[in-house]
């Protein structure tokens, strides 16, 4: 695995082929991701892998929630409002995304929102849970698990998209997946083979020059 190549090649894939990922490959990705560091080796991540009819059921129901403007009760809340500098980055990102979609004739925000809520058509969706008794350090650990997984996936030609929109209705997810109420649903990950011809997958979001965010002390 060329780590630099995986880091630079990884992007949020927002259009997928329908081809299923073999179970053995998903298991391999999860095994590699489990090597991520965690506070005191607590390994707080718990993963639900969803494919096939169950994924279709969840996608359909979540799309209906979104279409009906059902109020979200996500287990991880967003800041309201975002600090100005972060709000500006998000605004720029959304404007760039809309421009790409508009050029491709896909500029309906409602349709895009529903597509987003359905893992962008990925054949596999992962949901990451953790015990409610755990705190912010464990959320950080789930981030490390996620990054390790998406880099391993990139190395194997598998696209990913880390999504907050798919976990907006965690009570429903716990119910349909048989997850105990004492588990928080932190994030979802779309997993599949990229549709490389989709215009949205040819776009890359920009990054702030890290020198603007770094101070040196000696």
Topology summary:
Elements: H1 3-9, H2 23-33, E1 46-51, H3 52-67, H4 84-103, H5 109-116, E2 124-131, H6 136-155, E3 159-163, H7 170-177, E4 183-192, H8 199-202
Helix pairs in contact: 1-6, 2-6, 3-5
In the CATH scheme, the class would be Alpha Beta
Number of strands: 4
- Determine the fraction of residues in helical runs and give it as a percent range: 40-55%
How many domains? The number is 1
Mean pLDDT: 94
| Beta-strand share of residues | 5-15%
The number of helical segments is: 8
The CATH superfamily label reads: NADH Oxidase
Order of helices and strands: HHEHHHEHEHEH
Largest sheet: 4 strands, antiparallel
Helix/strand class: alpha+beta
Mind explaining what this structure looks like?
The protein is α+β, with helices and mostly antiparallel strands and 218 residues long. It has one domain: NADH Oxidase (3-Layer(aba) Sandwich). Helices cover 43% and strands 13% of the residues. The protein has eight helices and four strands. It has helices at residues 3-9, 23-33, 52-67, 84-103, 109-116, 136-155, 170-177, 199-202; strands at residues 46-51, 124-131, 159-163, 183-192. The chain has a four-stranded antiparallel sheet, with helices on both faces. Helix 1 (3-9) crosses helix 6 (136-155) and helix 3 (52-67) packs antiparallel against helix 5 (109-116). The longest helix has 20 residues, at 84-103. It is globular, with a radius of gyration of 18 Å. The mean pLDDT is 94.
